[in-house]
Amino acid sequence: MECKASWDMEPNGDLIVEEKAVEKEEEELQDRGQWTNKVEFVLSVAGEIIGLGNVWRFPYLCYKNGGGAFFIPYLIFLFACGIPVFLLETALGQYTSQGGITAWRKICPIFEGIGYASQVIESYLNIYYIIILAWALFYLFNSFAAVLPWANCNNPWNSEHCVDFLNSTSWENGTVTANATSPVIEFWENRALGITDGIHNLGTVRWELALCLLLAWIICYFCIWKGVKSTGKVVYFTATFPYLMLIVLLIRGVTLPGAKEGILFYLKPDISRLADPQVWMDAGTQIFFSYAICQGCLTALGSYNRYNNNCYRDCFMLCFLNSATSFVAGFAIFSVLGFMAQEQGMSISEVAESGPGLAFIAYPKAVTLMPISQLWSCLFFLMLIFLGLDSQFVCVESLVTAIVDLFPEIFRKKGRRELLILGIAVICYLLGLLLVTEGGMYVFQLFDYYAASGTCLLFLAIFEVVCIGWVYGADRFYDNIEDMIGYRPWPLVKLCWLFFTPGVCLATFLFSLIRYQPLKYNNVYEYPAWGIAVGWLMALSSMICIPLYVVYILLKTKGSLRQRLRQLTAPAEDLPQPKKHLIDSSGQREHFTQGHRSPAKEVLITTEKETNF
Predict the structure, then answer these.
(1) CA nearest 125: which of 289, 279, 272?
(2) What is the pTM for the complete model shown?
């Protein structure tokens, strides 16, 4: 950058040089930004944590694991793991005003690897989660047909085994062959996916899905391209519209014949199921998935809060909103499944599905039985799209925030952030094309089962609570939160950080390894050994970041081992210090007004400088 310095002469003959180049360079660094108001933060977090899992995973887990009895382990994990870690990550971002990597660097440098691990998981999510939006867009566009294309067997993609069970005489006579399939399954496998016989045969790209994926990425890009300025405005619609759709579908569902039986099937308690350890494993993993824990999102979103925002109250409110949404979604889903089971003369357990099976097979099949089926199909897939959209663009935003905070001198200049988001979107789209090939579903399942698995999230959660509870110090972090919100949180949260959360997470993590079963597609197709190996490599690629970074930073830092540990476990000096621990350089206590944030560069001495390592 070329510039000219201006020269002035003092009366005594001294020269004054105005370094305009430096000033201009400093002016180019843009502000990090903040939420305009609390509503933007709350809606952004709500949009991130309330997603597809609330609709297609929680209701299925509830009925599968003892109905109403499932709420016992679910609530235990909610209070022992979900809320404490949710508060930890949100408060960490608000306190440090940093993204998912540099927040850990400032609070405890030796555990910066936690931030890198979470961003690796986030990167995998950015690649594969948006594929679900591409499928939903494909189904939405097909919902505008005069007759829903998955309603009958009179289509070019249907095979000779296709049987319209509702209108078939062979179904009524009991002469259906063993390999008969329904039109909704054939539309999903033959028309939408064009699925091959295994991961070894990826086939060609499904260009209709590739265009839907491109559309999803374009929408995602323009939702966040201006940072929190655009994200904060978009979530007013994307976070609230799914609730409108859910209410409409709920009202429609409970008015259908057979809805009562479906809801009773969903809630009927079976206490004996609590003896199965898998039920507790399902409850724990659902909490971690549903609350977006250990993904860096909560830290990134919290970092845009004002310092004195009451993040403690926000966390409890958002956690209860999330769980309540999951509970209500179960009524909307199982009322429709009860109706479908009654219409087909089947038991509800035979029609209940989870994940993509519910969204793209069970529910589309149910809407074909309703009057004005195109309307209900459009409403359902619109709900899915908006549920997934804000989860997707907040994930991208958190990755962008982490990178910008890691390299502020590069990306906090005019136009650089937009280019960074564009680069991430293009790379993720090109990698995502692998998942919209004819064998892409097998790759998608690998990502879902290994790359962002509950095992990885539990591993990160253990290190997060150990870092804050034992290394940085739970009491010190309580002081930081008290400094931000004006009072100390509930003491039980601190006990969770110190004992309950690491203990429960460690036990669940070990159990997940002991009870590990290799991935099967549809419980039929067994992945080859190399496919399982690729899956485990994706899982380990995030978890290994933590020990690798510990070794790297210890080798890089100079001094004795004791000196290095003391240096690498001490928080950054420019972090805000709790008012009651601040003293001025003369040894007298400073008095601050409520809500005042201490300047980062002011020379302050804290009475709790040592760590609890």
Answers:
(1) 289
(2) 0.88
